[in-house]
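Weekly modeling sync, notes
Attendees: S.R. (lead), two postdocs, one rotation student

Agenda item 3: backlog of single-chain predictions. S.R. asked that every request posted to the team notebook include the full sequence so nobody has to chase files. The rotation student volunteered to paste the first one in as an example of the format we agreed on. Action items at the bottom.

Example entry:
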Amino acid sequence: MTSLTTLNRRGPALVLYLHVTLVLVCAAVLTGVPDLVPITVFILPLFFASHYLGPRHLPWYLIFLLAVMLICVAQRQRADLRTSAGVVAVFFIAFIVLQASFRRSRLGVSGPRGESMLVDLRDRIMSQGMLPPLPAEWYAETALRSAGGTPFAGDFVVASRPGNGRRLDLVVVDVSGKGEDAGTRSLLLSGAFSGLLGALPPEEFLPAANDYLLRQEWEEGFATAIHLTLDLDAGDFVLRSAGHPPAVQLSAGAGRWVVHPAEGGTVLGVLEDADFPAVHGTMRRGDAMLLYTDGLVENRSRDIAMGIDRLQGQGERLLRSGMDDGARRLIDKLGSRNDDRALLLVHRR
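Predicted structure, as returned to the notebook:
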């Protein structure tokens, strides 16, 4: 344990020493064979430093590198145009690296480590929205697509089945903004909403989520959400909406789609003591339920009502062959590629 701790403490210093050695090696090679090696050889240690040195060491390292480069230039008998252009290029790249270092200083870690931390955070939080194991008679699937195809989106799903019992809670959320602009807020809210969903009774979830958003005091701190509470034994469900597009249910017995509008639901993060009325219903064998975000049914040329009609039509056509992988098939056919899209499919076999 002691040796491991010592290695962790020496890690940043060892990386710095290796980078300093690389600069000195470049200087030695440049001095030894000046006609064969260009001054731009210093771009190599610049590249590695931008990736592996933290913001505390990087500015001083850049000063050291540029000073060594200028000493090497001064030792040359003549400075031609090629050498001058190389010096300008190295200074320009060093300026860009320094700017990136200042942006990273708020995080306090080097580039790859900061990126890996962010990716790990995203994966850990998004894993909280994974659907829990369900009884054999139930099938559920989620599909998410972000604007521009980035891995960060403003739409997310959280799920909870307390104690693997008969109750299943599913929430689809649409955070204001889209793509990377909404990504940080989405990461924070998905973790918070997952904790609230598992800790509170169903009727208290949306009020608690609303209070949480109000406390953040974000300039664009609103979100829409729809919450489905499902009895896995009886098939009874309760829908509560916060300014979200209505759920759509396929009634297998009647062979038609039913829209479940939740009247009066207020967008989260706007009003205190907001009310979220409940809509009750039952899912019988063969029925399916679709929860989705507005990016799936709305775009500039089509309002949400027409989008819901199209969703029902595509659902009837695509899901006729089976519900398995139905969410992915539907989301690939519908919605705007310039907006985040989320779709949750629940089916009672």
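Discussion: group reviewed the output briefly. Strands lie at 138-145, 155-160, 167-175, 223-231, 236-242, 247-251, 256-260, 278-282, 288-292, 341-348.
Action items: rotation student to repeat for the remaining queue; S.R. to check formatting next week.
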